[in-house]
Amino acid sequence: xxxxxxxxxxxxxxxNSGTWHxxxxxxxxxxxxxxxxxxxxxxxxxxxxxTLIQMNPIxxxxxxxxxxxxIINHPIYGDQKYNFGEKLQGINKNLMxxxxxxxFMIKNKKFTYTAILPDYFNxxxxxxxxxx
Length: 132
Prior knowledge:
This protein is mainly beta. It is built from two helices and six strands. Strands 2-3-4-1-5-6 form a six-stranded antiparallel sheet, with helices on both faces.
């Protein structure tokens, strides 16, 4: 299964493509769990304030994409958990993370499903002067 996500994140992501390799921490009660996470990414458009990024997770960890962008100091707009404690206002209350496409194969037949961008996502792209 190949998943593609789009996100609008804060700031200008420097490197235009690559792979993130992280050890993400989560807790089950008092038990600390460290999980390896891997995501391939490609910048679609960017400016000095924002980046539209395409991400293809290789692993499937809880909040993986949100955590990885937060780790590199580019949290997703509208993220109430991974956002450096900023107050959310207006359209920013929507998480600017979109499950854009899924591809898989069953009995040698390829399937691809694409979800159109929500109106609030398109509106925010225009506000941030990003092109998709």
